[in-house]
């Protein structure tokens, strides 16, 4: 009896498990459905990153060039104010002064301290002043300052043989006979030393000197400000540029321990390793290794500058530890000033940290200015003690008689800290404190043993982001990695390329250092290395692109190493052709190499670089195409001193290749680069484009005249009951553009039988013609449309070059780009067009271009006069007998020097047409300014800010994204299941109940329900209103930004299984993709993409607008409408991939896609089926079926291979797509007065609405 419920529970549990498995299976399938417009270029603004990097590069490097050693010892005589213990510390510079005569001991000490300083700065000028007088000190300081000029001078003061400094700011020296102590004011010392300077005070109460120095410096600064107007050249000591190191504070005496040197502070500064080892032994007397004594310490083998020896290794570890302590304790700017600006100052401050540790153990506190925080308890000192202990423990074996059988064991200090750094990297994020081991990594780069590992870890650290690069540069990594570029080790090449790519992405100013040291050769070799991975070769191309970016020295150096040929060779490499990023940066590198560098450009011409770049214009990656357009744009942006036909041929060939891109490009990136590239062509041939634009403006005005005269003709015809036929010069139905405007006016007025009352007099028309050009720079959407519709095939012949049609075509492309639906593209192109239009207006005003007189006869002129339309454009005055001949416009198209000719003899009257060489120059400068530029290259650089080598990090990000998508899809699917259950219970008799009733601000043209919420999108002519249909409130209005004379004609949601994007088509042939159209989470709608999908719109009495359908599985958009073609646009590549000829005489009214079949309903009632797998337009798989007799309003694929079609007459038919040539599977006749305008099919229910 108890088994029944258990079985039922198990059954229910089993059914629940099956449901969960089914849901997960569906979600997994949906996760594999591709998503459109998720690339980086769609998700962020195309602009360069604003990096706030730390100021790691010093404004100026200083060098201590002079050192003054002032020793006031008075050997054998103790100062009166100091009572010394017995015994007490006596050694000065490790020399016992009592072992020799006073004078000889003094000289020995002076020579010894000089040698100690020379270890740190061997090239400085050293001057000793032993037991000096005031005059001696003055003479010494002034001479050193005079010779040092703006460099740093060091003054070392040892006052062990004189009284302590006074509270009045005085130190003591001697008189000439050494019978008295003479005070020397710090104020005077400041005047003699000037700045920049460094002062070292080794005496009791030395802190008094530091405080007095600051007080005197402040007083001096105040006096200088007061007296600067009267004595502007007065000497001033800037305390900011003065550094002071004092042995103790203002109230402390120096240690007198006989085991220590008397000048303990000086020994710490000049012989740090020796005093550190001795102090370590004093502190650890009971815990030293057996056999280790002070005498043994003196015999440590090796040299300080040889890291392979025990003594050199200790010095190396000491440098790494003190740098690490300083970098972790000091502010960044102070660290740069003290440890990176001057080698001697850096050494002294490293040793000052040791002096603080040692002297604090004897109750002395060293003082510095600028002050340094206390570091004597830093944990890194424990690492130093350990390294010393390990080294000393090996001394007995190393120095024994049998030392030949013992090998010195190097310290594991660097290996251990590299491991610690690696551990930090495994958890490293920007919010954590910086790794304290970073300065140690810098030191490890000097070691061949650990170099490979250190570079790898450094690269991983730099990969964390720009903040990590800034930290590494601030610690001083730059000179080390710069020097490593001289290495020939191939195993280092990938690591160094990676590191330099990271550095240049953050700070491109390093390019000059690379060129100066020949570093560009390293990256050229890396780019050619077949053993390098594609990602590292991409970084090498990026580094080269940064080296030549705006750097003439870099361009020249790289060109000498054949960078153009090397980059072009990469385009033949199979690895490169399968790596979009590498193709992109090779193209950018080429574009930057020949930017404003004509020699590189001609090297590219010789190597057919432009033809190689043409191939990249068809690349499936939008960034690669944009890079190729950029490179081709800079390729034509060079002008030799004297133009050549070959240069013109190359430039025009590039222009002819770039112009057609506008019709097949959906990428905003590429079209922006196209506008920038064409602007460079306009700059090269400004006179040609000005002349072409002038003719377009003339034709625009002629069309206005035709419209005006036509309207008056109709009015007069209606009044007189007669029709006047206007005489044409040929049989064309359109206006004859070959006739001069004045002749046309004359003929038109004669045909109107003297009706000239409605037209202006000749003087009035002249004024209007001149003033009309003031409006030429008005680039409204309506005016751009009028200019675009002008056909240059009917313009007067342009003589002087065979390239005129190319430039005219480029001009039309610029006009189309100026009317581009994306604001970024249109803004760039409008700048170019406006610049040309402004020059057209200047041409008209300067040359006083007028139409001929009202009667059609020319006004009286002197022989030789001609109508000048500007530079490169001149039309000879024609006689009455020649008035019907079209004026020929000569245009200068060959590149020319910017220096124009000053003299000209005038046109040759024996010729009927002026050639380019006959055209006079004018005072109007038509050189196009650099108005437009993009940030595509800077934006491309931001890719190197992101982690590039952390595969685990990328996998974690992908997993987080996948989990987020999974959760989102699960919610949608559960909601869908609830809806399906509700659909099964749906009362079909209540379908007529009204759920929503509201008035839209304008007449709706399209409706669309949001797939995930209760929003209803209602489109009118210019915008989309978002309604919440449950509550009847309008949420927002989305302006589609289409021109006022156009209307929205279609809407679709794409990526419905994720965050949907809205596809909006308008009848001007434009498509716009909107993100967040319903203001989700209060975020404003964003335009993701926009382009001119159809440019060959055919005017008709009834328009279908733009008709679209979406293929989510392939991310394709099929677009038709008032065109003879149906176009397939790939949103992944963002370009037109295929074009189907409809074969119909009417427009396409509806589109639907299923599997591989595309169904198109047409205005003549036919349905045309296309197999999209076939790339041929005239394929036998393209079939037409006369499904209806009238305008088709719907075509929808149903399940089981059925197709539903409906016409405006009300006949709804369902077809078996396998037997379309026969009768329909089913027919539904809708009886309704006036027919039907739209039919909707529910995607999940068997419901049809009309």
TrEMBL record:
Segments for region (Disordered): 716-740, 755-774, 851-891
Biased composition (Low complexity): 755-772, 877-887
Matches recorded under InterPro entries: ARM-like, ARM-type_fold, HEAT, Raptor, Raptor_N, WD40/YVTN_repeat-like_dom_sf, WD40_repeat_dom_sf, WD40_rpt
Boundaries of every Raptor N-terminal CASPase-like domain copy: 61-214
Gene3D superfamilies, sorted: Leucine-rich Repeat Variant, YVTN repeat-like/Quinoprotein amine dehydrogenase
Pfam hit, one: WD40
PANTHER family: REGULATORY-ASSOCIATED PROTEIN OF MTOR
Protein name: Raptor N-terminal CASPase-like domain-containing protein
